[in-house]
Design brief:
The chain is 38% helix and 18% strand. By secondary structure, it is α+β, with helices and mostly antiparallel strands. A hairpin with a 3-residue loop joins β5 (49-50) and β6 (54-57). The mean pLDDT is 82.
Length: 152
């Protein structure tokens, strides 16, 4: 069973191989094609979170096959350099929104930038993404909360 899992080190460049682990559902929705075990950067060893689609424990992010995520949010263009970072960021933000201990929005955004750089995004591009996340992420969170309140 565990032979099906793909172990990923996001701090090593994977190039287009990343697209073998993900597929596009539509223009801005993706899903994983394999169950992934992602070794998270240092500082996340104590984070613990679990639900049906993903879990975080012992510095590893486990994502089931078929996990859906929206890629890089906003005006960012999805590509080789940021798809893995977007998957990790979406998982960390999901855990953060469910009150996982040891996470903060700033740390989630920082991990996105670090993974983008490791996946060969340029210095300016990775910083532009980071500044976008830090500067406008709160707008998205407020919008989501308001939308949920309107639905309930």
């Amino acid at each position: 069973m565990f032979d099906d899992f793909v172990t990923v080190d996001p701090l090593k460049f994977h190039g287009t191989l990343v697209f073998a682990w993900m597929e596009s559902i539509n223009k801005k929705l993706y899903q994983t094609t394999h169950p992934l075990v992602v070794n998270l950067p240092k500082g996340l060893e104590k984070v613990k979170y679990a639900d049906g689609d993903m879990s975080i424990a012992d510095g590893k992010l486990n994502v089931v096959s078929g996990f859906m995520f929206d890629g890089a949010s906003g005006v960012a263009i999805d590509g080789v350099a940021n798809m893995l970072a977007a998957l990790i960021h979406d998982c960390l933000c999901h855990a953060m929104s469910k009150k996982a201990k040891g996470l903060s929005w700033k740390l989630c955004d920082y991990v996105y930038r670090v993974v983008c750089r490791a996946q060969c995004a340029g210095f300016c591009r990775s910083w532009a993404h980071y500044i976008g996340l830090r500067g406008f992420g709160w707008v998205w969170r407020i919008f989501t909360v308001l939308l949920i309140m309107m639905v309930l």
